[in-house]
Design goal:
Layout lengths: L20 E4 L5 H12 L3 E5 L4 H15 L3 E4 L6 H15 L4 E4 L14 H29 L2 E6 L12 H21 L4 E8 L5 H13 L4 H9 L11 H12 L10 E4 L7
Length: 275
């Protein structure tokens, strides 16, 4: 017999992350925000993190909470500071009781030849793109192991698998993140803690849209040409990935269905790394 009931009656059963809690770094816009929204839609309480206009962040936080009936917090911890990261975790535990899911997404970029690459830019990119992931994992790993459940998702990049010129610090950090993912997977394997890296190619975000417009204007080239010949040149599908795709993959990796997936680096790059 077909079981028909009101949608709200089965809300928990349809939300695989009901009762879980998550920290998503760099989640006030773009990929991180999309991942945070997907986790909340699937029942997880979420702590947002990142920079931006305080009023806009509060509007986003309240909307995610109200639309999904979950607790959503915001913390402005500086991802270049290990002490700030540790205190963010303490505040998350105080609010949620524990941290079950960590998504390391915070990142910055600088493009320059090696001979001209500023040392300060190298240091800041490594600190935010790689060291922050280590510090956040370290602050949450042992409690995850003791509870027998944890999901660590590191948002790396296609540049965690291959290289491009003029991106020395970014490529080094993202390769390092893939390596860190594997070490954490091995150390958590017997304790129900998985660790996986997502490796996006170009994803359609407001930041990418701005970059397209800036390049089209500065080089006096048609917008479509910039997309085709610069951004999507190496993506055989000739389309941008979406933040919704990143969110859906993250939700799957956090679910019980992915309990045996750990130590992987999953390209979501339209075939870029298949070359």
């Amino acid at each position: 017999m077909l079981n028909i009931s009101k949608p709200e009656a089965n809300l928990a059963s349809r939300r695989p992350l009901e009762g879980r809690t998550a920290i998503v770094t760099g989640s006030t816009s773009g990929i991180g925000l999309g991942i945070a929204q997907a986790l909340a839609q699937n029942g997880a309480a979420v702590m947002l993190n990142g920079f931006g206009d305080p009023a806009q962040i509060e509007t986003q936080r309240a909307a995610i909470a109200d639309e999904n009936d979950v607790d959503v917090a915001y913390d402005n911890a500086d991802m270049s500071s290990s002490d700030a990261i540790r205190m963010m975790v303490e505040r998350a535990v105080a609010r949620f009781g524990q941290v079950d899911i960590v998504v390391n997404n915070a990142g910055i970029q600088h493009v320059a030849p090696i001979s001209e690459f500023p040392a300060a830019k190298w240091d800041s990119i490594l600190a935010i793109n790689l060291s922050s992931a280590f510090h956040l994992i370290q602050a949450t790993f042992e409690p995850m192991k003791s509870r027998g459940y944890g999901r660590i998702i590191n948002v790396a990049s296609a540049h965690g698998l291959i290289a491009s010129p003029f991106k020395a610090a970014y490529v080094a950090a993202k390769h390092g993140m893939v390596g860190l993912t594997k070490v954490v997977a091995l150390e958590g394997a017997e304790y129900g803690v998985t660790s996986n890296a997502i490796c996006p190619g170009y994803v359609w975000t407001p930041l990418v849209e701005k970059q397209i417009e800036d390049q089209a204007r500065s080089h006096n080239v048609a917008r479509d040409a910039v997309i085709r010949d610069v951004f999507l040149k190496n993506q055989p599908t000739r389309r941008f990935a979406t933040v919704e795709e990143m969110g859906a993959l993250t939700v799957f990796l956090c679910s019980d269905c992915a309990a045996s997936m750990t130590g992987t680096a999953l390209p979501v790059d339209g075939g870029w790394t298949a070359h």
